[in-house]
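dude i think i finally got it to work??
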Amino acid sequence: MTTTSKSGDKKSSNNATNNTVSGTTLSSWSRQQKLAMIAGFAILGLLLALSACSRQSSQPAPAGVSSTASTPATPAITATSATSPSAAALPAPAKKTPKKRPANVTYSDPYSGVSFLYPRKFALTSGDKAAPQLAGVGDVPMNFVQPGGVAVATVALPDRSYPGTDFASAFFTVNVNRSVSEQECAHFAFVDTSNADGEPVDAEKVKIGTAEMEMTSNFSASAMAQAEAQYYHSYDGACYEYVLGLGTEGFATEGGVEHVNRDEVFAKLEKILATVKINSVEPEPVAEQAVSGVAGDQ
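look at this
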């Protein structure tokens, strides 16, 4: 029994020892295996991370990201240039000054060759509408010794040029007559009738600007209107007539109305006359043909 008991005990102890060694070995292997697995996973994760970073750096940035990233850079550059010393040193743009229109206007007529300067505020009429008139008097006649005169242009002063006076109207006009010779141009159909005796007065030579002219005047009056016209003649291939007219109305002694300064008015008109220039023009051949045709029919 003892032997049996020992034998069994040895087997039991051997089995127990073997189980203990086996459990210890398994337990020890499991710990190493876990450490190895953890290290492997860590290395694998590091490799994956490096691979991903390398892939992202090698790919071009998307267009949307690039434009979005570059957008804020523009205002920064603009702000820098706006505040830079060179930008601050640039002079401010010069303001445009409106051009003033000249006080005088040039009138030029290619058919008569007449040109002159007149104030812009005066009223100009030409052609058939150029026949001058004086308020309260009416039409002012031409003063050629022969018919055939043509009105070229008339410049009239504004109606309210002299408020508070008996001023009614004033004008400067140009007429031309190609039927009058140079000798006839020095004469007038009617001359100054303003003398007390009513006797005609011969025309006088005057110098206006650089031009010498023949001059006479005519004066007419009624109870309520007075008119004075000064006539000037000069010859330059045709007979040119310049008329300076002044008309007044009413009684200057009533209602606080004063007489207009006649010398001042005529001085303004003479300034226009002094600017007259004549560009010689040849007589129109059409008019000569028309006259010849009429003579042939007779």
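Helices lie at 2-58, 63-70, 73-82, 85-89, 182-185, 262-273, 285-297.
im so relieved honestly
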